[in-house]
Each structure stands twice: as C-alpha cells, then as structure tokens.
Write a structure and sequence with these properties.
heterodimer; A: mainly alpha; Helix Hairpins; 3 helices; B: two-stranded antiparallel ribbon; 19 helices; 2 strands; globular
C-alpha cells in the first residue's frame, strides 16, 4: 500500500531534480544524466500507479508505457552522447556556451 | 481485403517504407526513392481526405484491437487538412532537396547528403502518425520520434554551430517529452484510460487529471515554441540545412500545435483548465509582438525567418481564448487558425528554401550585404515578395484570409483586443519584410555580389511555387471550411471499424 504513495513521491522528486539539472548544469554529460533522471522519475510514478489496486494483479498498461519509455530514453541518450562526442571533437568544449561565458 | 478501411495506416507506413528503402538504396538512388515516396504518399492522403469529407470522422483500430488496450487512429477534417499540408509541402521540400544537395556536393555526395533522405522520410512518417493518433500515450511516442529525427536532421549541416543548436533543441525536446509523459501518468491515474474519446467521456473535476493535462499542455507549448519557451527554435531552425529548416518551421511546430488543439477542443470540456486558455492567448499575443521585433533586429535572413516563425506561431494560440465563446466565434476562429497554419507553412517553407538558394549562390545570408539581389536573382526576390505579402496579411493572400477570420471572430466575441493584436502583428511583419525587400531592390553597392554554386531550376522554382500557393490559398478556403466542418469533436466520431 505504501508503494502507491512512496513511488510517485520519489518519482516526482527525481523528476524535479532532473529538471533542475537539465536547466542549471552546464556540463553536457551532466545534462544527459539529468535527462535520464527525468525519465526514471516518470517511470517510478508509472510503476507506483501500476500497483495502486492493492491485492489485485498489477495494471499492465503503465508497465507497457514504462517499457516504451525506456526504449525511447535509451535512443535519446545514445543520440545525445553521439552529438556530444562530435561537438567535443569539433570544438574541444564540454558546455554549450563558449568557455568564458560558462560558469564551471 | 478492403484497402479503403486501412487508409490511415497506409498514410503512416508509406513514408516509413520509403525511408527504409532509401537507406538500403544508398546515397545515389535515395533521392529518386524519396521523390517517388513523396509522390505516392499524396494518393492515400487525398483519398483519406475525400473519405472524411464524404463520411465524416473515422476511427481505425490497429490490428483490430480496440481501446482501452489497443491503439486507435482517428482521421477527421483537422487531421486531413494537416496531412494534406504535410504532403504538399513535403513534396516541394523533397524536390528542392534533390537540387539543393546536387548544388551542395557537386557530383560527389557528401556525408549529409546520404542520411538526409532517410531521416526526412522518418520525420514525415512520425508527423503523419502524430496527426492521426487518437491516444494520448501514442502522442508521446510520436513526439519523440519527430524530435529524434528532427534533431538528427539539424546536425546534417556542417560546423559546430548546428551541433550546438541541435543539442539545445534535443534537451528542450527531452524536457518537453518527459513533462508530457508525466502528465499522461497523472491523467491515467485519475481516469484509467488513454484513448482520447474515452478521456473526453470520463474527465471530471479531479486535481490529478487537471495537473496532468496542465503538464501535457505546457509540454506541447514548449514543443510549439510559444514565447517564452521558444529559446531553442531560432538557432535550431536557422542552423539546419535549408530543406530541413523549411520542414521544421512549416510542419513540425504545427504537429505539436495540432495535439494542443485536440486536447482543448476534443478532450477537455469547455473551461476545464480554468484560465489557461486566456493565459495561452496572452502568450500568443506577446509572441506576435516580441517575435516580430526580434525578426526586425536580425542581420541574417535565416534568423529573420526563424524569429518570424516565433511570431507567426503566436497567431495559432489566439484560438484558445476565442474558443471558450463557442458557437460561431469558435468556428470562425478555428477556420482562421487553420487557414493561418496552412498559409504560414507555405510561406515559411518557401522563404527558408529561398534563403538556402541565397546561401548557395552568394555564400552568405547577411541582409546588409545583399543589395541588388532583385536584379541578380529575380526569382528569389519574387519568392520573398510573394511570401511576404502573406506574412503581412495583405489581400488577397492566404494570410489575409486567416487574419480577417481571426480578427472578425475576435470582434464578434466582443474581445476586440485580440483583433488589435492581429493588426499590430501585420504591421510589424510588414516592417521586417519590407526591410529585407528594400535591400533586395536597392542598386548593387560598390562590392559586386559573388556568384557561386551551380544553379538548378528546381531550387529556384519550388520556393516560388510554394510562395504562390500561400498567396493563392484564399481559393482553397471553401475546401478548408468543409474540412473544418468535418472536424466534429472526437467524442462524436462515428465508429468505423475495418
């Protein structure tokens, strides 16, 4: 029973952390990790919902959504890492703004 | 097998199959495959549109699995209008790209050349799926698919700046998609359904459902680049290769707007999110003024055109505060916004494509260094002039029809200030378009314009044809009206099952 409250709350906290990381952190790898926090936060909310009717079988629909979401997140992460690698070898930068503007 | 019943799925599969064939065929044959796909896709789209006009909205259950577990496609007048837009602009962009990449790479196909065709058809297929989906979770998947292929397309331009713009676009896209998914999770927790029609039936006053829908709408506004969530758009649209810029600005932002439209008109009961519709209208008004001023300040053509998109997207959102009046105000505003979306897509794609020709021929797109363009490249100048007339909303262009309808809906509702915003937006658009055209018309300065690149007819005449289409769109208003009438809310859609 506690999972139906605990998981969504933890998920919301992870999501908020991810939003902060994505907007506030400058380092591109930090941004990618923050984006994965966003995903994991939403998935935790969905998993919490799947078991919301205590005693009964878990609802398969949120689980299917989580599986689809994981696939999409893996693809997004791979694309982001590939772009960061190309960007780094082209500019030598690990932030979006040129070094003097970035407050690392 | 009844082919007609399967039209919605054929519309999605056609570009997807074309993308796969283009990838396997290799960079030399991919352009031909893409042109063939673009031509062939028009047939099922037109057929589907005709069927919607004749029989009203249709629902298609993929694999025969109905809701709540199956995935449902919905085709109504709205989706048919947007699908037709994507098909026509898509064909124009494809034809242009065959010339653009020949000019760009000579006889030797470059690295961007090979991947463009596959990624573009992937994006096309995802957009078609987004326009047909009747399920809020499927919207998330389609948004991600469109976003992934769009980001990859932006990186096909050379240099570090497109990569930087693409990453900013990717992070904004991830934030939008994940916020949307969180909204779907809350909505599902409150209602237990994902199908839009079932949602419309089961939405009641509930904190979880309202929070979920608010998150979903906010995410869609970010994806549509409504001020102040437009920060990612100008750099991404300006840095991309020109055929990609045209597709992003003309079509991709319309995809997420279309879903916003569906949520407000078909899923939520009137006034569901409190004052959200008025807030969105105010942001739209701010976007029109602020985006136009930014466009006026830009020194490069592609950035001017990109900021103009930020402004023109604002008009779309004037619909929401007007929609709450219902009745004739709603139908006039919806028709106006639909015509605006079409006119803007034609005009904007033609301007981005013409900007690409400018870049290829003169090696840059700095406005100040382009005097005499009207003499050196008259077709390009004519394209900007024609598209500009639509942007300004002068009669008898498509843009005029759209602004007239929106403004008269605003006056009929008694909220005249929305009409004032439309007028101010037209004046500001005249300012930034005339500034560009005045330089084009000026006598060539001391420095002669450099001439580079091989000219192909396609790269000059396709943009002109699209600009002419935006101008002549008024002739298509009766058809758009019939399509808008065939957009009865999804809740009332007839259940046509194969």
């Amino acid at each position: 029973m506690s999972t139906t409250v605990l998981y969504p709350l933890l998920g919301a906290a992870l999501f908020a952390l991810g939003v902060w990381g994505l907007l506030a952190r400058k380092h591109l790898i930090h941004k990618v990790i923050a984006a994965n926090f966003l995903g994991s936060g939403v998935f935790l909310v969905l998993i919490g919902l799947a078991g919301r009717t205590a005693g009964a079988d878990p609802d398969p629909v949120p689980l299917a959504m989580v599986l689809t979401g994981i696939v999409v997140t893996v693809a997004l992460t791979a694309l982001a890492l590939a772009l960061i690698k190309r960007y780094y070898s082209a500019t030598g930068l690990d932030t979006l703004e040129p070094a003097e503007e970035a407050e690392q | 097998m009844n082919l007609v019943a399967h039209l919605p799925v054929i519309v999605i599969m056609m570009p997807l199959i074309g993308a796969s064939i283009a990838f396997v065929a290799g960079p030399r044959r991919a352009p031909l495959v893409t042109v063939a796909t673009a031509v062939l896709t028009i047939a099922p789209v037109a057929w589907l549109g005709a069927r919607v006009l004749a029989e009203g909205p249709t629902r298609y259950e993929i694999g025969g699995w109905g809701g709540p577990l199956g995935i449902v496609l919905v085709a109504d007048g709205l989706s048919a209008a947007f699908l037709g837009l994507v098909a026509i602009v898509g064909l124009g962009v494809t034809l242009y790209a065959t010339g653009y990449y020949r000019v760009a790479t000579g006889s030797r196909p470059g690295p961007g050349h090979g991947l463009y065709w596959t990624l573009w058809l992937f994006m096309w297929s995802s957009l078609n799926a987004l326009l047909l989906t009747g399920d809020v979770f499927n919207v998330y998947v389609c948004l991600e698919l469109v976003g992934l292929s769009a980001v990859a397309l932006v990186t096909l331009a050379e240099g570090a700046e497109p990569l930087r713009a693409a990453m900013r676009y990717l992070f904004a896209s991830i934030l939008g998609a994940m916020t949307y998914l969180l909204g779907v999770a809350l909505l599902y927790a409150a209602t237990g359904v994902l199908d839009m029609r079932m949602l419309a039936d089961s939405l009641g006053p509930s904190v979880a459902a309202e929070t979920g829908l608010a998150l979903m709408v906010a995410a869609l506004l970010l994806k549509t680049a409504l001020v102040p969530m437009h920060f990612w758009l100008p750099t991404a649209h300006a840095a991309a290769p020109s055929p990609v810029s045209a597709a992003l600005s003309a079509l991709v932002v319309k995809g997420s707007f279309f879903v916003t439209l569906r949520l407000f008109l078909d899923v939520m009961p009137a006034g569901y999110l409190g004052g959200a519709d008025v807030l969105i209208g105010v942001l739209g008004a701010v976007a029109i003024v602020w985006g136009s001023i930014q466009a006026l300040l830009q020194e490069r053509i592609k950035l001017l055109v990109a900021y103009s998109t930020v402004a023109q997207v604002g008009y779309l959102f004037l619909l929401f505060p007007l929609a709450r009046h219902g009745g004739e105000v709603l139908s006039a505003a919806l028709l106006g916004v639909l015509v605006h979306a079409l006119a803007h897509a034609f005009a904007k794609s033609s301007m981005f494509l013409a900007a690409g020709v400018t870049l290829k021929r003169f090696g840059h797109d700095r406005i100040a260094d382009l005097p005499g363009t009207a003499r050196r490249a008259p077709v390009i100048a004519a394209t900007f002039a024609l598209a500009g007339v639509t942007m300004m909303g002068l009669p008898p262009s498509g843009g005029f029809g759209a602004k007239w309808l929106i403004a008269s809906a605003a006056l009929a509702s008694g909220e005249w200030w929305w009409a004032a915003v439309v007028l101010v937006g037209g004046l500001l658009a005249s300012a930034y378009m005339f500034r560009l055209l005045a330089v084009f018309m000026a006598a060539p300065g001391g420095r002669p314009l450099p001439v580079g690149g091989v000219r192909t007819l396609r790269t000059e005449w396709v943009p002109l044809a699209l600009a002419a289409a935006s101008f002549l769109l008024v002739l298509a208003v009766p058809l758009v009206t019939r399509l808008a009438e065939a957009s009865a809310v999804v809740a009332q859609a007839g259940g046509v099952v194969p």
